[in-house]
What we know:
Layout: E1 9-14, H1 21-34, E2 39-43, H2 49-54, E3 64-65, H3 68-73, E4 82-86, H4 89-100, H5 104-111, H6 114-121, H7 126-141, E5 146-150, H8 159-171, H9 174-179, H10 189-209, H11 213-242, E6 247-253, H12 257-272, E7 277-282, H13 288-292, H14 298-313, H15 318-346, E8 353-356, H16 366-378, H17 382-389
Parallel strand pairs: 1-5, 1-6, 2-4, 2-5, 6-7, 7-8
Antiparallel strand pairs: 3-4
Amino acid sequence: MKELLKPRSVLVLLGSGGVGKTTIAAALGVAAATAHLRTAVITVDPARRLREALGLPRLGGKPTRIDARRLRAAGLDPALKLSAMVLDVKGEWDAMVAEHVADPVIRRRILDNAFYRSLSTRFAGSDAYAALEALHDLYEGGHFDLEVVDTPPAAHAFEFVQAPARLMRLLDSRAARWLLQPAGRPASLALRLAGHITRYVARELERFAGGDTLSSIADFFAAASGAAERIVGRMQKVSALLRSPAVRFVLVTTAEHDRLRQARKLIDQLESEGLHLGAIVINRFLDESIYQGFTHYGALDEIPRLSAALEAEDARDDGVAAALSYLESYRARAEGDIRRVRRFVEAVPPHVQVALVPEIRPGTSSLAGLGRLANFLVAPQAVATRLARGASAQPRAPLKGGRRAGKRSDGAVGRMPE
């Protein structure tokens, strides 16, 4: 992961909901700041998870630097240059209108338009595009060496990447301009007829839908027509930034079967779009104590030995039996995670780095926990080597198939026990 922490770089985190994307984004921000980079972390998370992860009482729409006192209390270097912001989606859209529409009357007409208000708040991808606008401004401003973007929560994680193209199609729609051209513009008889039909359809639909929905759409396109070309041009620049060498995508997943399956789909989508996948983070892989003490399965192997010893002594009571049942279930789940991760990593393109991050033990303060996660992200992946070489005390099948054995050159898992 250290290879991704370079000046004039952007890290965009993708992943399905519930994989800890915001936490990993914040931890990468700490790692980058620790590497002496001026770092900004951007999120559009309405649940304010970034603010909670950083332990901040509030977070605004402009980058806020984490103060030295808070960093020192978490055991981090108080000189770290780490800032964070939560995006004001509507504010970003309004700023875009202000930048591209010079006439104050037309600008107010757009800002007050009902369709525009829906477009800037409820349109699928509106928050994603606002995040890209903010990222573009921060990157071009040059006030930070590295930006980390926590993508908005969405039903489809790839929506973030597709947002500029979708909005370009909307604003540059010839069909919309043809149907909604302002009355009084010179047109052929056929177009005038189409205009009459359109107005009739609009009136009839509004009778049933209520309000002036279609009229507000027509008015929006009429008002925005002068700025549409400039806005589309800006979107093209934003889209180009996503595909530039400066931007690397970091895919966050967990070891559950459905999460790994979704991650595979995202890898394919990134490749099809020509985007640069820099790394994959498998989050919450085992818990912190097992992860750190991992030697030939370590404590996991003590569970069946303990069970066998108690069986031999016939010392089980109901409480002991329940505790052992839980531990055996835990061991089975952990070994299932290991097998799934092994298969997943074997299918990852060789040039993509993989980092394993454990579940941080409960009771850790938010910022201190991020510091520990940052260390796991950038430290040599020793646990990967142990997983690759490890063999439980229980007999196990020999390794079969796959691309190669041993540790990958990037420190990721190359082999895990069956």
